[in-house]
Amino acid sequence: MEPRPTLTGARPRGKRSGVANVARMTEAAMNRTTETVEPADAAARRSAPAVVCYAVDELPAVDLDRYAVIREQAQPAASVTVPSREARTFEVPAGSFFRITGVEGSQVGDLNLWNANDLSERFFSGKTRQLHATHVSIGDRLWSTLPGLRPMATIVADTLSWYGFDDDGGGVHDVIGTRCDPYTNRLLNDADYHHCCHSNLTNAMAAHTGLPLPEAELLVHDVMNVFMCTGFTLDTHQYFMKASPVRPGDYIEFFAEIDLVGALSACPGGDCGAEHSNDETPGYPLQVDVFTPPASALDGWESPALNPYAGLR
């Protein structure tokens, strides 16, 4: 059997992963059953029209002009530097803005968000993906977990919005990946690595809350991969990463719809163009800046309420 083509520039999967072998075994097992025989109307079934699950025009409107007016009056309020291969927390009051900026070199970051007043309400990457797309940019919102399900933050500026989707299907700022973690690293590489984004975020939240590491770890959730360029291969539909287009000075900016605690990890993969979860890949810091407007600028604006669903019966 000829090997499947790989994404240009990507490393071929090694024997350790066993992905190709599993695929061949699965295919062979499927071919032994009559249930997998292609039906006569297979082409017609495959040609069924694609239906977008959630109509965007049904979502609450995003008033970017209003946000722009508020932003003009906002002043610097706080700044946090996230060192390479580490994570830091930051707080953003509702009605303020926070900006994540690349500094010194090409670097991606893993972002977690929580309701500052109730850490059980946190960023819901899966629902954000369903309501918007696999990759998010200006006008998209980061939604919270059930049962709250409300906007936590709205993207109001993005200097990488020009990128769109490339010929490999890659885009920037994904909400499809999770975060590099020491458990998967151990599973695939048979080695312990302690600066995975999951570990970084856990340590940052432990420092922020005072919780022991095992309890802080339970707060960490699937991320928005800021600046990361990712997609699914066109042949095998596997999640891939490629070198981020971010350069020093590029940024993405959010409006905080509710009081937020954020945690950002400067991924040990650097620009994620080749490797991650090691200390050899060049890495750089990221900057988080918070801008707060005067109360008068927020006249008539209020945080979105919790989802009005009456509750399970």
Give the SSE map.
Blueprint: H1 19-31, H2 42-46, H3 64-73, E1 75-82, E2 87-92, E3 97-102, E4 109-115, E5 118-122, H4 125-131, E6 141-143, E7 151-158, E8 171-174, H5 182-189, H6 197-209, H7 213-217, E9 224-232, E10 239-242, E11 251-256, E12 260-266, E13 286-292
Antiparallel strand pairs: 1-13, 2-12, 3-11, 3-13, 4-5, 4-9, 4-12, 6-7, 7-11, 8-9, 9-10
Detailed description of the structure:
It is a single chain. By secondary structure, the chain is α+β, with helices and mostly antiparallel strands. It has a domain at 81-298. Helix content is 19%, strand content 26%. The chain is built from seven helices and 13 strands. The protein has helices spanning 19-31, 42-46, 64-73, 125-131, 182-189, 197-209, 213-217, and strands at residues 75-82, 87-92, 97-102, 109-115, 118-122, 141-143, 151-158, 171-174, 224-232, 239-242, 251-256, 260-266, 286-292. The strands form two sheets. Strands 2, 4, 5, 8, 9, 10 and 12 form a seven-stranded antiparallel beta sheet that branches. 36% of the residues are buried.
Q: How many individual helices?
A: 7
Strand share of the residues? 25-35%
Q: Count the strands? A: 13
Largest sheet features: 7 strands, antiparallel
C-alpha geometry: globular
**Gyration radius over CA:** 21 Å
> Structural class given helices, strands, pairing?
alpha+beta
Order of helices and strands: HHHEEEEEHEEEHHHEEEEE
Low-confidence stretches: 1-19
The end-to-end span amounts to 54 Å
Instruction: Give the helix level as a range of percent.
Output: 10-25%
Report the average pLDDT across residues.
91
